[in-house]
Amino acid sequence: MAKIYVVGIGPGKKGDMTFRAYDALEKSDVIIGYKTYIDLIKEYFPEKELISSPMKKEVDRCREVVEIAESGKTVSLISSGDAGIYGMAGIMLEIVPESIETEIIPGVTASNAAAATAGAPLMHDFATISLSDLLTDWDLIKKRVDLASQGDFVISLYNPKSKGRTTQIEDAAEIMLKYKSPETPVAIVRNAGREDERVTAATLGTMLEHEIDMLTVIIIGNSKTFMKNGKIITPRGYKY
Amino acid sequence: MAKIYVVGIGPGKKGDMTFRAYDALEKSDVIIGYKTYIDLIKEYFPEKELISSPMKKEVDRCREVVEIAESGKTVSLISSGDAGIYGMAGIMLEIVPESIETEIIPGVTASNAAAATAGAPLMHDFATISLSDLLTDWDLIKKRVDLASQGDFVISLYNPKSKGRTTQIEDAAEIMLKYKSPETPVAIVRNAGREDERVTAATLGTMLEHEIDMLTVIIIGNSKTFMKNGKIITPRGYKY
C-alpha cells in the first residue's frame, strides 16, 4: 500500500539523522525535496528515484507527492531539520486526502543543532521566531520579538536575513535591545550541523557586525545566559 | 583520551535516536543518566557499565561524570529528548573543567516528537515554556505564558503538572484564555515517542478535562491552527 512519509532529515550530516528517518527513506520508492536537501542525502540513496523541487514551489511539491502516492508508490517528502518546524509537514497535511496514509517523522531542528554547537543556550524557556515576512505580516513578527524580549525568553531566530531582505534583523536587534542588555551572549551559527558549520559567539550589542544570512540561526540568551570556556550557557537554576 | 558526551537520546524509541547519539553511547565505557532514561537504552547496550542516578541529583550526577572522565574513561551523560532543552547539557557545561573535552549531541526533543504525532502544530513561531517552578519563579513563568499568548505564539508546555504541583496548568489555561479562543486546538501528548504514547486532540476550553501529568507535553495552537482529518495543523501561510 502506498504511503507518504514527511521526513525531517536533521540539519545535514547523516549522524544527526534518526534511524526512523533513514528507514523511511530506505523504504521509499521516491524521495522528493528542495534541491539542497536532496543533495544532502543523495549519496546514501544512489539507487532511489530522487526528485529535486525548486524553492517557493512548496504547494506544487506536495501535489506531486500525492500523485506519486496515488500511483501506488511509497514516497518521502524531506525537509532539513524537523519537518514540523517551518518545514513541509503542515502544508503536506493540509493538502493530502485522508485516504492516503501519511506519517510525520520528527528530526533534530536547526536551532537544537545550533545550540549544541554553541553550548547550551536553549536550556530555559525560549521563543522560536522566523524573521521571514514572505508569508507572515512583519508587524506581527516585530510584536513577537518585542513580547518575547519582554518575557526574558531565550530567542531563536530562523531566516534572519536573505539577499533581498536585510533590514529585519536590524529592526529585531533594536527591539531586543529595549529589554535585553547589549552584553547578552548571542550564538550566530551558520550551516548548523553541516560540513561547513561556523559558530560565532557574539553579544546582542555586536551581533550585527558579523556575517548573517539565510543559512544562519541566531540564538539570543536571556538575562542569566553567560559565557564559559567559549561556550554559551543558559543556566536552568541548579545550585552548586 | 577520556571524553564526555552529553547525549540527547530522543524521546524514547531507538528509531528516534540519531546515528551520532547511538555511536557516542557505543564508544563510551560508561553511560550515566536518570533511571528512566537508562531503562530506555539498556537493551541496546547490555555490555556497558550503566549508572542510574536519582532525580533531583543533577549536580551530583555531573560531578560523577567528571570523576569518571578524570579516571581516563569515556562517559556519556544521557537526557531524553534533546540534552540542551531542559536537559543536562547546561549544568554539565557549568561544572566541567575546560581540560576535559565535552561534546553535546542534539536530539529530537519531546515537543517535536509530540508535534509530529499530533500533526503539525509547531509550523509557525512558538514559545516553549516549562511550568515547573522548582527552579524558576512562578510569577516569571506566568508572565511568559501571558506574553506568549498576547503574541499569538503556538505554545508548547513542558512539565505541565506533577503529583505535588497541580494548579499551575489551571492558572496557565486561564491566562491563555485571556487572549486565545477556547476553540483553539490543543494537542495533549503523553509519553511522546514512547511505547505507550497517547495523543488527545482537545481545545483550550476543554483541555483541563483530560488527564495531564509530568510525562505530558501540551501544545496549544495559534489563532490560525485548525483540525483536519484528526490532525492539528498550524498553517505556515501557503496559498493553495
Can you walk me through this structure?
The structure is a homodimer of 240-residue chains. The first copy, chain A, is an alpha/beta fold and 240 residues long. Chain A folds into two domains: 4-108, Tetrapyrrole methylase, N-terminal domain (Cobalt-precorrin-4 Transmethylase, domain 1, 3-Layer(aba) Sandwich), CATH 3.40.1010; 111-233, 2-Layer Sandwich (Methyltransferase, Cobalt-precorrin-4 Transmethylase, Domain 2). In chain A, 29% of the residues lie in helices and 25% in strands. A five-stranded parallel β-sheet of chain A has the order 3-2-4-1-5, with helices on both faces. In chain A, β9 and β10 (198-203) form a beta hairpin. The longest helix of chain A has 13 residues, at 58-70. Chain A is elongated and about 55 Å long. Chain A starts with a strand and ends in a 7-residue tail after the last strand. The interface between A and B is large, with 75 and 75 residues. β7 (126-130) of chain A pairs antiparallel with β7 of chain B. Chains A, B: Pathway: Cofactor biosynthesis; adenosylcobalamin biosynthesis.
